Amino acid sequence: MNRTAVITGLGATTPIGGDVPTLWRNALAGTPGARPLEQDWVAEYELPVTFAAQLSSPVADSLTKVEMKRMDPTTQYGVVAAREAWADAGLTGEGTVDPDRFAVAFGTGIGGVWTLLDGWDTLRNKGPRRVLPMTVPMLMPNGPAAAISLDLGARAGARTPVSACASGTEAMDLALQLIRSGQADVVVCGGTEAAIHPLPIAAFAAMQALSRRNDEPERASRPYDSDRDGFVLGEGAGALVIESEEHARARGARVYAELAGSGVTSDSYHITAPEAEGLGAARALRAALESAGASPEDVSHVNAHATSTPVGDRPEYLAMKSVFAGHLDSVPVSATKSQTGHLLGASGAIESVLSVLAVYHGQAPVTINLENQDPEIPMDVVTGTPRQLPEGQRVAVNNSFGFGGHNAVSVFRSV
Amino acid sequence: MADKEAILAGLAEIVNEETGLETEEVQLEKSFTDDLDIDSISMMTIVVNAEEKFDVKIPDEEVKNLKTVNDAVEFIAAAQA
User: Fold this and answer.
1) What is the CA A221 to chain-centroid distance, rounded?
2) A69·B17 Cβ contact <8 A
3) How many CA atoms lie within 13 A of B35 on its CB side?
4) From the candidates B3, B34, B37, B39, which is the catalytic residue?
5) In chain B, whose CA is at the least distance from the CA of A70?
6) Does residue A77 contact residue A235 with C-beta atoms inside 8 Å?
7) E strand segments, A152-288
8) How many angstroms separate the first and last alpha carbons of chain A?
9) pLDDT higher than threshold 90 for residue A329
10) pLDDT tens digits, residue range B49-67?
């Protein structure tokens, strides 16, 4: 069995929009999501980085008090995005999906870091009796996938790909496998992250990964710019409803795009640094195109991983150059982390949502803060105004890479 | 030291915080598991919050004997006396 997988629902909560319509509108306009952090702990711990890309709309508006209390923010964000995607797919009615044919594939990079560290504080300050009995289910990285399966009624497995910043895109890969192999008819997939906490900030800063442009947060995330100095930590979640084409057509669902292909590789090179020539990324890109039955020349848009770190952005360019060769000059590339910041395990999911909308609407979102393009990265980067993509069949590629040498690439095709 | 009515009211608030159940539903004869649908993890949270609120100790081995709301009210009242 090798069935076609299509995307029928989208959901997101992000630093530049609390739902998909707002995210898309802001992504086309070019909206910096980074803001100064106003929490007391920034000064208390003298953090070297004092800004981040926090959610633009509080999730408390769409969850009950009890849901908020029983879920780590990682799970809260995932559930909010998944519910939006589910409603967007028109699946909220009773009996529209067979629970035994419905799976969840929802990744995260870190998991419930707030719950873990709040629990540690409680233990030290108040003793073991006061440690919340819900601590374990709230901190476990499979918490979001499990909560979504409970919430939406999925009984064909609730899985959690964990591969740092490639997690969201590995969830797309898993969803595609589940649909193609016939193990599920419907998969809610995506990624979520809620790690704007002093410890991850201090840790990412310690490894020199974060931008320190503290006086100008909105200009800090600047992929491909000569003056880029690190990524901006973001938070949020993205969710997509993937269905077999047969299942979607039978119920007359609106289809945004085909999830046409996917490729996953590992560098086996260094625990954090990407392989300098982008060889692992290139292998993932080739594998994804092959899986999609597409040639490099078919690709009309790339949503790049492009985190704005000095060492990360160029290997991705070299990977694309080696696969697309001369065609790269005709591929508009968007680096949307310039707007959203880097949502770690959610970034692949948010960028999948943006890639799907790009092929659906025929427009590529903008890259902001690109003032002096790095001469070592000569590509056609979409800046200023959204780029109109060509009529006819459009193919978008989304790249995601993670610490550990994880490379994951998804391919979306217009229908 | 609170009287039993005040203990019931305080307990109802704790249950409401944890489960979202309306405070009026938390009545003396109600069973935590059968009537109020409170699972063991929520029950432990309620117990720990009650210990703090009423300044009593409720040993873990005692929790299984607290089947109804009245059992809990009586235990807390006796522990306070």
Assistant:
1) 16
2) yes
3) 12
4) B39
5) B18
6) yes
7) 158-159, 186-193, 236-244, 257-266
8) 21
9) yes
10) 999 999 999 999 999 999 9
